[in-house]
Amino acid sequence: GEDVEQSLFLSVREGDSSVINCTYTDSSSTYLYWYKQEPGAGLQLLTYIFSNMDMKQDQRLTVLLNKKDKHLSLRIADTQTGDSAIYFCAEGDRGSTLGRLYFGRGTQLTVWP
Amino acid sequence: DGGITQSPKYLFRKEGQNVTLSCEQNLNHDAMYWYRQDPGQGLRLIYYSQIVNDFQKGDIAEGYSVSREKKESFPLTVTSAQKNPTAFYLCASSIDAQTAEQYFGPGTRLTVT
Hints:
The structure holds 2 protein chains of 2 kinds. Chain A is mainly β.
């Protein structure tokens, strides 16, 4: 299977920017996703980026993709305590027979007031 | 109000008993998925279904069974053969099997003692 790697923990102060990093191995991935999971809840799709894009911005979220290094990052501007959650990176191939996703282990973001 | 529902949120069973977890969606999605999440781990795919009356094993299908008799429903049975069933179970759906964006239910936490 495909490997998706993330650092496990990140702590920031409220108001600072957060950057969560992810690396993946499958060069055929066509879509890369960021999901957010709050305690005891399911996963919420935050944003995604096509593999032919370098950057995507959506309000406070900025996704950067470096295809050469197979590196994906999620930047959250003006981080709030409500952003504290686990963030999962996932890669998927929309053209495959099954649109399955491969998930990283998740990064626990803690925001200090 | 479209979405995915899973019930119950918490489930307790004695070892040796089979238990069925419910997953219902009213999004008119063709594809549905079951994942298992353990602390500090990413999501592991148990079973998936691309269309009604069809399903395939994922990466960790042993000790589990599913059915897909209706488009909106994809129940998961955790059998007594599953050696370590205590976990958080997540159901997801996508528009079709070729679309990698998946939307998740709130999850069921199963505890087997």
